Amino acid sequence: MISVTEEEVAIDPVDYAQAKINKSLSSKDKIGLLREMLRIRRFEQVSLKFYNQGVMGGFLHLYIGQEAVAVGTISLMGDNDHVITAYRDHGHALAVGMGMNECMAELLGKATGCSRGKGGSMHYFAPDKNYWGGHGIVGGQTPLGLGLAYALKYKGLKGCCFCYMGDGAVNQGAYHESLNIAALWKLPVVYVIENNKYSMGTTIDRSSAMRNCLAERADGYGIVWDIANGEDLYEVRAKAHNALERAHKHSLPTVLEIDTYRYYGHSVADANAKKYRSPDEIERYKAHHDPLRLWQKRLVDEGVMTVEEIEKLDESIKDEANAAAQFALDSEFPAPETIFEDVYWEVDNNTEAGSTGRHFFGD
Amino acid sequence: MPQITYRKAINDALAEEIIRDENVVIIGEEVARYNGAYKVTEGLWERFGDKRVVDAPISEAGFIGMGVGASMLGIRPVMELMFWSFAYVAWDQIINNAGQVRYMSGGLINCPIVIRGPANGGTNVGATHSHTPENFIANTPGLKVVCPATAYDAKGLMKAAIRDNDPVCVMENTLLYGETWEVPDEEYVIPLGVADIKREGTDISFIAHGRAVITALKAAEILAAEHGIQAEVLDLRSIRPLDEEAILKTVAKTHRVVLVDENKPFCGVSAQIAAMIQEQAFDDLDAPVQRVCSLDAPAIYSPALEKIQLPTPDRVVYKALQIL
Ligand SMILES: Cc1ncc(C[n+]2csc(CCOP(=O)(O)OP(=O)(O)O)c2C)c(N)n1
Ligand SMILES: [Mg+2]
Fold first, then answer.
1. Quick one: B203 and B177 in the same domain?
2. Residue A12's pLDDT band (boundaries 50, 70, 90)?
3. Are residues B30 and B140 in the same domain?
4. pTM for this predicted structure
5. Which one of B29, B60, B80, B134 is the catalytic residue?
6. Based on the domain organization, do B93 and B209 belong to the same domain?
7. How confident is the model at residue A274 (pLDDT cuts 50, 70, 90)?
8. Which of A38, A108, A172, A224 has the fewest CB atoms nearer than 10 Å to its CB?
9. Which structural domain, as residue segments, surrounds residue B291?
10. Which residues contact B131 (CB under 8 A, 6 or more apart)?
């Protein structure tokens, strides 16, 4: 079982800053990585406020604490690399470049939302940014990620699919079936297990049988696997890059388990958020393992940014988040007739197929 | 009579059955230490311990199938699905295994499993989490399905479901969990297949199940107050087995019917009821059977539209007035 202790963090045998993929980063790139992580955190803090004020309802699964995973992996993506994830999807969405406006409006179910108010927090999509959702059913995205990889290989494109999932999702059958097919057919998919140590209120030792770690199960399928410390952006990038190369060069899958932590409850509605884990544990992560703090410290140590510059950047991102909040509030709800739009392509596009036979039924 | 919530009524039913029968075991995600995602199993793990109340990994196909297998050997598993929407990953186990094993073994094997959890829209969680699969289950001979609308019914039906020797799917409703009704302290069991008149009336019949019963009752109040019309509300409670006699009786009494159903219209539960009424009570009808269902699209997230996608009292009143 992987749980980070103070000692383990203190010992850092490899300096991932020296990895080739990280050495090639310019100062501007590094500031960009900070910007992306800050965007996620500030966006979600505003969304949390909305939830607490009753401006939005339903489920809101916050990604705060895990930012370096999405930002680190997605920062490696090229034109033919794709992303698919579960319901804790705001981080990946913003990291691929989705705007805060359409993401915030979606939370409120507005017509200007990324899914026109039809998907909500758990179901963001932006295929134009190679971002395929946003999936509410645990593990449901794992065969889809495989399918994106299949399509890339079929088309002869050199790309891969980053398919994200939680430590609880590894126990869905669909994932295991996907691993077998990925290995059997040599498909360029990277399963990124975001191990935040809990599936709702269940610790991994109570949900998963394993020898040493979750990724190691890949051994059974002959798939290469690795573990990364998700608080260190350099390490995430270095290890994800290896996986990406394996996909690009050899069309082979990888399982990459990234150790991370969520600061908030499973969702904002999680009444037991502070019962199944101690407040001390949460505080310890915030104080010693926060990916944003650690990255900011690095940038200051490396002389890339001053503390003042970081604060200024942060302020501008808070402004972006607040402006998005206003945009969402000012936007209209979708019109009632849109309920029946986006169900069938043929109907929406007024084709012959779409007008042959009855597609919708009244009462 | 004490007033208790729908949630507590189910909780009491589970506790009573755990005590009554040593083979009853509760299994599901977060049902034990977390007390249930919707707190339906609150306190049961503390009271009855690890053997009787068991947390499962997020492996619905695995643990539901396991429950089916265990029931073949005489265990009475009560499996919680956090949402019935998640049943689809376990569909093969429910439909092919629980639903067919008795038939295919020529009656040699029976499968006394209960699968329970909420099955409803209207909570702003989007299409993947808002399914109402009672019609799918009812479409499978071999399976039984009940949809309680009140705390009283939830408790009595749950106890009957656990004692039943066939697989029973109990579909609850997150919007009802916190609502209270009168429930007696004394033990009672409500047999599957018995409908219940929730409101007497003479002019028109509303036939519904689950939360749609509450919608129908509200519509009936509006009709009485604003139009002086007395609607009878028949709560099916159990979809399969179905109380056809009660349906025919209310049709014969009022001669007009509006079916209220949170299913989608195509092959929804109400489609079966409508077919059955025209077949068996054609001469009793003074008007075509009407239906109010969920609007025929995946469940929309947007809270503004979600409210109108599900049947509303206003839509029921409108449909009723068209045939009065
Ligand atoms: C098939 C299915 N079962 C159950 C759920 C309810 N559920 C949603 S998230 C979750 C926990 C998942 O934990 P994990 O995979 O570790 O991801 P995390 O929430 O930590 O990001 C559960 C049980 C679901 N959405 N789908
Ligand atoms: Mg987790």
1. no
2. low
3. yes
4. 0.96
5. B60
6. no
7. confident
8. A224
9. 196-322
10. B83, B84, B85, B88, B119, B121, B299
The pLDDT-based confidence of A5 (bands split at 50, 70, 90) is very low
Q: Which residues contact A343 (CB under 8 A, 6 or more apart)?
A: A359, A360, B297, B298
Does residue B319 carry a pLDDT above 70? yes
Backbone torsions φ then ψ of B5, nearest 5 degrees:
-80, 160
Residue A210, classed as helix, strand or coil, is: coil
Ligand 1 atom at minimal distance to the Cα of residue A200: 11
Q: Whose CA is nearest to atom 7 of ligand 1?
A: A138
> End-to-end distance of chain B based on CA atoms, in angstroms?
38
Q: For residue A117, which residues of chain B lie inside 8 Å, CB to CB?
A: 300-302, 305
The token pair that represents A206 in the structure block: 């109570």
Residue nearest to atom 13 of ligand 1 (CA): A199
- The correct CATH number of A20-354 out of 3.40.50.150, 3.40.50.80, 3.40.50.970, 3.90.550.10 is 3.40.50.970
CA B81–ligand 1 middle distance (angstroms): 12
* Residue B296 binned pLDDT confidence (cut-offs 50, 70, 90): very high
pLDDT for residue A129 is more than 90: yes
Q: Strand, helix or coil at B153?
A: helix
Question: Closest-CA residue in chain B for A170?
Answer: B58
CATH number of residue B100's parent domain = 3.40.50.970
Residues B118, B204, single domain; the answer is: no
Q: What is the pLDDT at residue A14?
A: 75
For ligand 1, what atom is nearest to the CA of residue A170? 15
> Which range, of A3-17, A104-118, B71-85, B182-196, averages the lowest pLDDT?
A3-17
B125 and B205 both lie in a single domain = no
Number of domains in chain B: 2
Same domain, B126 and B10: yes
Chain A: nearest CA to B58, how far in angstroms?
6
pLDDT of res. A273: 86
Together in a domain, B91 and B217: no
The reported pLDDT for the residue numbered A156 is 98
Residue contacts between A and B (CB atoms, under 8 Å): 141
B182, B217, B241 - which closes a domain: B182
Q: Which residues pair with A83 in a beta bridge?
A: A131, A162
pLDDT of residue A2: 38
State the complex-level ipTM: 0.96
Q: Is B60 a catalytic residue?
A: yes
Q: Would B189 be classed as within a structural domain?
A: no
Ligand 1: which of B82, B85, B93 to mutate, most ligand atoms within 8 Å of CB? B82
- Average pLDDT over all residues of chain A: 95
Q: Which residues line ligand 1 (CB under 6 A)?
A: A 88, 136-138, 166-169, 196, 198-200, 266; B 29, 58, 60, 82, 86, 89
In this structure, the residue with its CA closest to atom 21 of ligand 1 is A166
> Is B217 part of any domain?
yes
Q: What angle do CA A349, A354, A358 make, to 5 degrees?
A: 140
pLDDT tens, A227-252?
999 999 999 999 999 999 999 999 99
In a shared domain, residues B7 and B133: yes
What's the B134 CA to ligand 1 centre distance in angstroms? Answer: 23
DSSP string, B237-294: -EEES--HHHHHHHHHHHS-EEEE-SS-STT-HHHHHHHHHHHH-GGG-SS--EEE--
